[in-house]
């Protein structure tokens, strides 16, 4: 078994693998395809510094959502990808559209977890989902996000370095969304 094999997401947990970095990896892949035209997972891994298994997984996810497609090739194992000729309709900047895709995939992963939780090993049949509402300024909201990112820093290299993972570690989705709660249009005036 190679390190790429160890880094390749397990199809049963693919939606949760590296949740903090999915947006970063997919954005890098889209940027690379825009720059070079076509690329295989191995070529992308070499250029971007990720494993080929990780790149392959994210290229397939991008294809599933209509952003990339397989490029014509003359057989063999190489599987080149390219940006889809007619990508999903652009209603806003690419970064915003990609954020929508990432949130959709996060929601899909959450729904899969809820549906398949009883199939997980007993020690993993719980989650730590929570939410809170508090009053913050824009600067405070940014500081809270920075604290959360710093708290996760000690664990971020485990995706690229499987030997750094403790026994029993599984990929866990870590999703944080900080946003202001806007009044409903039917509420009329702002509420304090």
Automatic annotation (TrEMBL):
InterPro entries: ArsR-like_HTH, WH-like_DNA-bd_sf, WH_DNA-bd_sf. Residues 9-20 have a biased composition (Basic and acidic residues). Gene3D superfamilies: Winged helix-like DNA-binding domain superfamily/Winged helix DNA-binding domain. This is ArsR family transcriptional regulator. It comes from the Bacteria. The lineage of its organism: Bacteria, Bacillati, Actinomycetota, Actinomycetes, Kitasatosporales. Transmembrane segments: none annotated. SUPFAM superfamilies: Winged helix' DNA-binding domain (SSF46785). Residues 1-20 are annotated as: Disordered.
């Amino acid at each position: 078994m190679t390190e790429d094999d160890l880094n390749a997401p397990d199809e049963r947990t693919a939606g949760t693998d590296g949740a903090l970095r999915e947006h970063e990896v997919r954005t890098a892949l889209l940027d690379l395809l825009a720059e070079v035209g076509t690329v295989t997972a191995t070529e992308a891994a070499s250029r971007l510094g990720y494993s080929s298994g990780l790149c392959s997984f994210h290229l397939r996810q991008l294809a599933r959502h209509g952003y990339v497609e397989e490029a014509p090739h003359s057989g063999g194992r190489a599987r080149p990808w390219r940006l889809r000729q007619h990508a999903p309709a652009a209603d806003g900047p690419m970064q915003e559209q990609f954020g929508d895709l990432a949130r959709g995939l996060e929601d899909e992963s959450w729904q899969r977890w809820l549906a398949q939780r009883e199939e997980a090993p007993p020690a993993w049949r719980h989650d730590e989902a929570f939410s809170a509402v508090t009053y913050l300024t824009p600067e405070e909201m940014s500081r809270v996000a920075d604290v959360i990112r710093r708290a996760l820093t000690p664990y971020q290299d485990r995706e690229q370095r499987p030997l750094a993972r403790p026994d029993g570690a599984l990929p866990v989705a870590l999703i944080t969304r900080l946003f202001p709660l806007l009044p409903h249009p039917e509420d009329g005036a702002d509420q304090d």
